[in-house]
Every structure is written in structure tokens, then in C-alpha cells.
């Protein structure tokens, strides 16, 4: 590594540690930022010599990254951006902090995939899904798929692992000559009715889909979720025992096994290790407070709300909505979510934009109570389980109330 | 299906539904049922024929490609034109609003619209994103418009339409006027579930569609709080 990169790496580690000591979060953004200031090519230098996997998509990337790390650790030490800092500053900081490792698994914000692909020269890129997210500023879904497709076409040597159930992801992945397909299901269809290739209508039947006017259709997947397990390309079924709730996480496990297999890790060896993952940056974490067993679920966009309802138990449920910068300032997506699965549960609402949620729930016919703070919500429910579903900054606020639970 | 039901058609949700547009259909149906008016909601996909006998039509927002496709199919279908000629009510937001005009701009070129309103749209200097508030045309007798906008287009009104509102916060058509209306047709840049913050506008559409001169009030406590909160948020 050139001297400038060494200095940059060391300063980056120190800055991150100082920031942590000062109680300013995990320091991964500021550390990476300083390192890249000193050496703009620092990420490239830090990635060189490692076998890298990138994980990107709208939803599930933090969880899938953590599951992939667990699977790959059977082969050797793995560097990763475990705190969800998924832009180049976060990647730089994570690699600087990890020191020398044979492997790296990095979660990548979908907007940064092209740049991180260029700088880290990964062996594998996993593409999970694409759906509407933070609409007032994110690239529209079709534009994102086009950006991915162009980026992948520029790196034909990279092995792509992609979700065959998502038409937008499939089309993007077909920019690459070498794709391993997995089927992880897709609960959310409202961003893929129009063919990204020709503008024709996409027709769905069961889990299958095809364009009605051009040859684009669902590829035959090599890795498939079946009941509570995963079928690998040889046809062998592996039971997946997770500590994370929901069928969506079985799909994330299938993706992790497919990525690990690209590094020579056999699914039979990897699958046991997946159950070591208990929570992901606070998500799914269970905390006991004043006799209430609180579980935190993060839901950032319509697709992930549907997944959260699937994971939550029938118990009192607190919904919290903010619309700060990281969430997107627009709350109109609330009307893309059908809250009907909550019918019959006791529902409490809070957050900066609780009134938007109140209007939505009223139209949905779901009775609710408004509370002005998380402690008020705790006081309002009897001892026992409390499910908490919140969007990004609302989730972080509640996590802070619970002492930054991991 | 009973002919006494209020029939609401949501046009092409497969193409034009980007920002919670379903909300307007849900809100109108809930507010009608709240008055004991039976409602039938009908979603017509772009590969289906558009019925021309419904009372109220909704068109949502969308990306460039789907917007151009929707214009082409609606012009070829002709159902919406026949419905408007019969006096049906149309409420269109964002890309759907642009469609109602004579032309709009998408994917780098100009496309013919439905020519149901005397207006045309082109590209603005920058994307308009944020709160959109305005004083609604006094002839409509409504409280101020409250909404959120996210669009790259600018819309120029001809003499055959009136602005829906005069902008107090945001951009709307051009930074001054916002939306347009003529007869029973209303278009607005207040995107997605625009009616969630404008229940009086929802009720106006319902009165037009049913012919009822008066609708009994509903409990709008939460909407009032939301409107007030947003009003305070944009106050200078
Ligand atoms: Zn096609």
C-alpha cells in the first residue's frame, strides 16, 4: 500500500475511534471521510488483495450482509460495514478498521453501486430488489435499474447473484454475462408492472412473470426458498434455522448462501452459522423495559412495511413515522401501504408525522391511539410484548431511548 | 353492480401510481360511505377498455415512460373523452394533470395530451420538490390547498381554464398559479394522496359526482390537525 494510503488509513481509524469515544455514534462516516480526504483512492487501496462481495438493493441489504458475513466466516476473516454506513465513506472506514482480511462483504447504497464496483473490484455483487424509496429525491426505479445495468456491463468479469423474482433486478442483472439467479419472492409488485426493456406490460402468474411483448421473462432460479429452507443448485434442500422473524429473512438467507458459495463455501457448512445472527443494527432486537418485551422492526418504504406486518406478532403495536432528511420529506407512500393486517390489534402511533399516519389509518378503518413519546407508549400498554414498527429516523430515535440496542 | 352506486374509476394504476395515488380513491370511497352513499371502485389497467359511464375518474402520477404510454392508450381508447362529454368528474394529479392538457414533455420530447383542458406542459429549470400550499379559486368555495409536490414540469394555462389556486408556498404550475379547473375537471401538482390533506376538495368532487348540493360533515379532527401542523411548518 502506498505511504499516502497508509497514512490515510491510520488517520481514518484514529478519527473513527475519537468520534466513538466522544459518543458521536460509531464514527464510521467521519473516519472514512477524513481518510478519503487524505487519499481519494484509499478505498481502492484498502480493497486490493481482498475477495470482495457487494450487497445492494432497496430492502434487506443490512440483514443479508450480516448473514453473508456469518456464512463466509467459515472460510476466513471477513471485513464488513456492520453499522449500515453503506456509502464509500462507510466502506473505507470499515476496511481501514478491519486491518488485513482475506474477505470483505460490503452493504452498498443502491445509488453508489457503480462507484463502489469501480473502486473495490469485487468478485461478487448480489442484487436483492428495487422498489420505491424516499421518493422526493431518490432516482426513480427504472432509472436505478438502468444505472445498475450500465455499471454491471462495464465489469463483465464480476459474478452477479440476482433475484429472479424482481423484473427490474433481473433486467439490470442481464447487463452482465454471468448471473446466478435466486428466488427470494417479491411481496411488492407495484414498481414492476412495466417492462424495463420494451415498456410492455409485465404479466404475473403465481411466482412467475413475463413481459407480454418482448422476450424478457423470469429466469429459472438456481437457488430457491422452499418452506423453511433453501434448495441449492444441486437440488439439495437445507433447513434454515434463523433467529430473525419472517419469510423474507429465509430469502435473505438464500441470498447469503448463494454469495458464500461463490467463494467456495458449501451451503451445508454455511447454513448452521446463519442462526448466530440475532439482530441487525437494532433491527429485530428484543429489549425488556418495565415488564414490556419490546421488539424493534424497521420499515422504510412500502415494500418493507408489508414485510414488517408479516414479522410482527399479534400484540399491541406502536407505529412511528418521521419525515426528516434521511426518511424523505414526503409521506404520501403511507397510502401505498395497506395497514389492514393490523386490524384487531391495539395500535398506537407517534413520531413527527403521526398526523399523516392518523389520517391514513382512519381511511383504512384501523382504530388507533396517539401518544406523544415512546415512554408514553410504554406507559399506555400492559406488561407483555410490544411490537414497534418505525421508519428510519423514528427507529433510530427509539433505539436511542433503549440505549442504542444492537 | 347497481346503477345507483357512485362509480369511481381509477385510470391505469399499472402505469400511473407512483406516490400513494391509490389514496384518492380510498379517501373518496370512505367519505362517500361515511354519508351512506354506496360506492363501487373500479381499477382499469392499461390493457383494459375504459368504461365511459362512471361518475368520477382519477388519474395519478407516474414516470416519463408510463406517462407517454398512458396518453397514447387513453387517446386510442376514447372512453375518458366520452365520459367527460357526458359530464363525468375528473380529478388528476401530477403526470395525470399534465396528460389532460394539449401537450406534455417526457423522455426528452413533446407528446400530445388528451386535450381535455386548455393547458400545455414543458420542463422547468429545476425539479419542484416540497410543500405546496395555495389559496383556491374563491368560486370553488374551498379552504386553502395543502399538499406536497415533486415534478420537473411547468404548466402554462390557456384562456379556456382557470388556475385551481394561487401559490403561497412551493411552485405549482410556474411559481405563481397552481393546478387548473374547468367544469367538472380538476388537475393539481399536489401529488399522490392529495385529498388526504384536502377533505373539502374531496367533498366538492363527491358533490359534483352525485349531484348532491350538500353533504353532512364528517369527523375531520385528524385531518384538521394535519392541515394545521403543515400550515405551521411552512409559515415564514
Ligand atoms: Zn418487454
Automatic annotation (TrEMBL), chain A:
<keyword id="KW-0547">Nucleotide-binding</keyword>
<dbReference type="InterPro" id="IPR013221">
    <property type="entry name" value="Mur_ligase_cen"/>
</dbReference>
<dbReference type="Pfam" id="PF08353">
    <property type="entry name" value="MurT_C"/>
</dbReference>
<feature type="domain" description="Lipid II isoglutaminyl synthase (glutamine-hydrolyzing) subunit MurT C-terminal">
    <location>
        <begin position="298"/>
        <end position="394"/>
    </location>
</feature>
<feature type="binding site">
    <location>
        <position position="198"/>
    </location>
    <ligand>
        <name>Zn(2+)</name>
    </ligand>
</feature>
<comment type="function">
    <text>The lipid II isoglutaminyl synthase complex catalyzes the formation of alpha-D-isoglutamine in the cell wall lipid II stem peptide. The MurT subunit catalyzes the ATP-dependent amidation of D-glutamate residue of lipid II, converting it to an isoglutamine residue.</text>
</comment>
<dbReference type="GO" id="GO:0009252">
    <property type="term" value="P:peptidoglycan biosynthetic process"/>
</dbReference>
<dbReference type="GO" id="GO:0005524">
    <property type="term" value="F:ATP binding"/>
</dbReference>
<dbReference type="GO" id="GO:0140282">
    <property type="term" value="F:carbon-nitrogen ligase activity on lipid II"/>
</dbReference>
<keyword id="KW-0479">Metal-binding</keyword>
<dbReference type="Pfam" id="PF08245">
    <property type="entry name" value="Mur_ligase_M"/>
</dbReference>
<keyword id="KW-0436">Ligase</keyword>
<comment type="subunit">
    <text>Forms a heterodimer with GatD.</text>
</comment>
<dbReference type="GO" id="GO:0008270">
    <property type="term" value="F:zinc ion binding"/>
</dbReference>
<feature type="binding site">
    <location>
        <position position="211"/>
    </location>
    <ligand>
        <name>Zn(2+)</name>
    </ligand>
</feature>
<feature type="binding site">
    <location>
        <position position="214"/>
    </location>
    <ligand>
        <name>Zn(2+)</name>
    </ligand>
</feature>
<dbReference type="GO" id="GO:0008360">
    <property type="term" value="P:regulation of cell shape"/>
</dbReference>
<dbReference type="InterPro" id="IPR013564">
    <property type="entry name" value="MurT_C"/>
</dbReference>
<keyword id="KW-0573">Peptidoglycan synthesis</keyword>
<comment type="similarity">
    <text>Belongs to the MurCDEF family. MurT subfamily.</text>
</comment>
<protein>
    <recommendedName>
        <fullName>Lipid II isoglutaminyl synthase (glutamine-hydrolyzing) subunit MurT</fullName>
        <ecNumber>6.3.5.13</ecNumber>
    </recommendedName>
</protein>
<dbReference type="GO" id="GO:0016881">
    <property type="term" value="F:acid-amino acid ligase activity"/>
</dbReference>
Automatic annotation (TrEMBL), chain B:
<keyword id="KW-0436">Ligase</keyword>
<comment type="pathway">
    <text>Cell wall biogenesis; peptidoglycan biosynthesis.</text>
</comment>
<dbReference type="GO" id="GO:0004359">
    <property type="term" value="F:glutaminase activity"/>
</dbReference>
<dbReference type="GO" id="GO:0009252">
    <property type="term" value="P:peptidoglycan biosynthetic process"/>
</dbReference>
<keyword id="KW-0573">Peptidoglycan synthesis</keyword>
<dbReference type="GO" id="GO:0071555">
    <property type="term" value="P:cell wall organization"/>
</dbReference>
<comment type="subunit">
    <text>Forms a heterodimer with MurT.</text>
</comment>
<dbReference type="InterPro" id="IPR011698">
    <property type="entry name" value="GATase_3"/>
</dbReference>
<keyword id="KW-0961">Cell wall biogenesis/degradation</keyword>
<keyword id="KW-0315">Glutamine amidotransferase</keyword>
<dbReference type="GO" id="GO:0009236">
    <property type="term" value="P:cobalamin biosynthetic process"/>
</dbReference>
<keyword id="KW-0133">Cell shape</keyword>
<dbReference type="InterPro" id="IPR043702">
    <property type="entry name" value="Lipid_II_synth_GatD"/>
</dbReference>
<feature type="active site" description="Nucleophile">
    <location>
        <position position="94"/>
    </location>
</feature>
<dbReference type="GO" id="GO:0008360">
    <property type="term" value="P:regulation of cell shape"/>
</dbReference>
<dbReference type="InterPro" id="IPR033949">
    <property type="entry name" value="CobQ_GATase1"/>
</dbReference>
<feature type="active site">
    <location>
        <position position="191"/>
    </location>
</feature>
<keyword id="KW-0378">Hydrolase</keyword>
<comment type="similarity">
    <text>Belongs to the CobB/CobQ family. GatD subfamily.</text>
</comment>
<comment type="function">
    <text>The lipid II isoglutaminyl synthase complex catalyzes the formation of alpha-D-isoglutamine in the cell wall lipid II stem peptide. The GatD subunit catalyzes the hydrolysis of glutamine to glutamate and ammonia. The resulting ammonia molecule is channeled to the active site of MurT.</text>
</comment>
<protein>
    <recommendedName>
        <fullName>Lipid II isoglutaminyl synthase (glutamine-hydrolyzing) subunit GatD</fullName>
        <ecNumber>6.3.5.13</ecNumber>
        <ecNumber>3.5.1.2</ecNumber>
    </recommendedName>
</protein>
<dbReference type="GO" id="GO:0140282">
    <property type="term" value="F:carbon-nitrogen ligase activity on lipid II"/>
</dbReference>
